[in-house]
Request: fold
Amino acid sequence: MKSEILKMLEEAGDYISGQTLSEIFGVSRTAIWKAIQQLISEGYDIEAVRNRGYLLKKGERADQKEIYSRTSIQTALDTEWLGKDLIFLKETDSTNTALRKLAENGAPEGTVIVADEQTAGRGRRGRSWVSEPGSGIFMSFLLRPEFPPQRASMLTLAAAMAVADGIYEVTGLDCEIKWPNDVIFSGRKLCGILTEMSTDMDTISYVIVGIGINVSQSEFPDEIKDTAASLASCCAGPVSRVGLIVSILKAWERLYSRFLMTDDLIYLRSDYQRRLINVGRDVKVLSESGDYVGISRGITRDGELIVETPDGKEHRVTSGEVSVRGVYGYV
Ligand code: BTN
Reply:
């Protein structure tokens, strides 16, 4: 009810009486008053005037800081199914870990967890993910696809496209993707994605897509200070975390429904390759059987990276680390 009240106040741009709200929602005026008090405690500037009702004042917060809460996200969210079950946590160890627990207990497809801070944010290949409060997006969403596990690798590539599309919509920055799913701008990493799958025999029980985006950090720890960047530093202005989450979830719904509708992934492949920084560049593959260098020729229809070595052989890389010459990690 809270986010619906907020939406109504936003749209009205005028006073709405407690009586009107209580009739619309079929609850007492005290219940409305309580919901309003909660919104105020979340940071919304709502004025209550006797005989007139409640008014949401806009742009008058002294600090001009965006409100980052379940209500603010839910009010702005216009997706069809993704994020209908939305959990917002001030702090958690890792949104992927928290969502996995819910998935094991039967949480529905489309459940989303967003946290303002992670105390044990996880990256790919056992690394950690810096997750300070107030500065980044740390979110995970749950899928329960019915296709075979082999197709799931495309999901992680599609997630990078959803992020790149969302960033473009909100900031106008046209990002690139470093295979499989780092979203980068000007050679620096803005976003990392950790996709985790649970299978049962030959079927997928669930997939968790975890997205970490550097939004407004002005500095990073020494280990990543030469390779990471935040969106705010790339576009020299504040970026709305709420707006970005909404755009990314919406972009995901669009991409995912296209992905489910057809087995022909050509469109997904060409859209992806348009942003793929690896194509035609020297790359270094760190594989378990030894490192090698070659030129990347794009991706296969299953999302593997094609790397041509100097002897003319084509290798299909399914996992592992691939660095691109000139982009962080391989100079
Ligand atoms: C990478 O190493 O590039 C992947 C980083 C993924 C980080 C995100 S933040 C939200 C979700 N929860 C986690 O613990 N990790 C992912």
